[in-house]
Design brief:
The N and C termini lie far apart (51 Å). The protein has helices at 2-11, 20-31, 147-162, 168-191, 197-208, 216-223, 227-237, 242-260, 265-271, 277-288, and strands at 34-37, 44-51, 58-62, 67-74, 77-80, 84-87, 91-95, 101-105, 113-120, 132-135, 141-143. The protein folds into two domains: 2-191, Jelly Rolls; 197-295, Homeodomain-like (Arc Repressor Mutant, subunit A), CATH 1.10.10.60. It is an alpha+beta fold. It has ten helices and eleven strands. The chain has a five-stranded antiparallel sheet, with helices on one face. A four-stranded antiparallel sheet has the order 3-8-5-6, with helices on one face. A two-stranded parallel sheet has the order 1-10. 44% of the residues lie in helices and 19% in strands.
Length: 299
């Protein structure tokens, strides 16, 4: 009976309240930990998986001894501590150690697909030792601007975790470190916003129109600025030109299409609006430092 009551709470975004004193003590304990920069940590993966949970499945109430990252690829989930927050697709949830919580799939949403990584923040930290915390402090929920890259890293982590490579632990550490560094950039920006709303709108427009021929003149006309001001905004806030950003986004999308969707180099080039396959290959190698054919699945 209790399970059905909890599931109903999750489905309707109701809150399951915990003892306030207990929750505050956990937060105080976390704040008293010694901060360590994410660039200096050597994370150790305990568990990694990638799966589709049952409809309406819940975990908890529970307390875990380590950090957990959950990437939601599909579906909608709910995370509850003293309040409930919705965890949509293409986002990452970070659960701190010792935080009592409930996590569950919203049964009215689409079929869920998630990837979970449990980890310690230094390799020697074992048996639930939690005397260190990450800096910048992780955001509970991170909406991924480049969800394809995050998805591929979680997927790679799960694949390595299942294998018996002699350098398995080292590979897991490298993959997780890359995930954490990417997330840390987002956490840093959320606490100290670096990208203006105007530029954010332009970046969203570029990412939603990968096949279009977009230039700084196109952006200037659409958003009501001069081409020179568009160039100024990109250089000031991203330290690259609009052309460099647009091309890099096209190459990242092409990489995903070749590596994960099985498209040929020619098909990927056409998908991002480049008709000349040889010119596409030169750009690809310039921005991603590898030939596009090296990303094909059979390689």
């Amino acid at each position: 009976m209790l399970i059905y009551i909890i599931a109903a709470h999750i489905a309707n975004l109701h809150t399951i309240r915990y003892n306030t004193m207990e929750y505050n003590n956990i937060i105080m304990e976390h704040n008293n930990m010694n901060p360590i920069s994410i660039k200096d940590i050597s994370p150790s993966v305990r568990i990694c998986n990638y799966f589709s949970p049952e409809k309406g499945q819940i975990w908890g109430p529970r307390i875990i001894p380590d950090y957990e990252l959950i990437f939601v690829s599909k579906g909608t989930f709910i995370f509850e501590t003293d309040e409930a927050i919705e965890v949509p697709a293409k986002s990452v949830l970070c659960i701190r150690p010792l935080l009592r919580h409930i996590f569950g799939h919203v049964p009215t949403s689409t079929r869920g697909v998630i990837s979970c990584i449990h980890f310690d923040i230094i390799k020697s930290q074992q048996n639930g030792s939690n005397d260190l915390c990450m800096h910048p402090q992780p955001e509970t929920l991170t909406l991924c601007t480049d969800h394809r890259q995050i998805h591929d890293l979680f997927k790679s982590c799960e694949k390595v975790f299942r294998n018996y490579d002699p350098y398995k632990n080292e590979l897991l550490q490298l993959i997780l470190k890359q995930i954490l560094l990417l997330l840390a950039g987002a956490w840093q920006n959320q606490s100290n916003p670096r990208i203006s709303k105007h530029l954010e709108s332009m970046l969203e427009y570029i990412r939603k129109n990968p096949t279009r021929s977009i230039s700084r003149n196109t952006l200037a006309e659409k958003f009501g600025y001069t081409p020179e001001h568009i160039n100024y905004l990109f250089k000031k806030e991203l330290v690259i030109t609009p052309t460099e950003f647009i091309t890099r986004e096209k190459m990242l999308l092409a990489q995903h299409l070749i590596q994960n969707d099985g498209l040929s180099v020619k098909q990927a080039a056409l998908h991002v609006g480049i008709n000349d396959q040889y010119y596409f290959s030169r750009l690809f190698k310039k921005y991603l430092f590898r030939c596009p054919s090296q990303y094909k699945k059979n390689n």
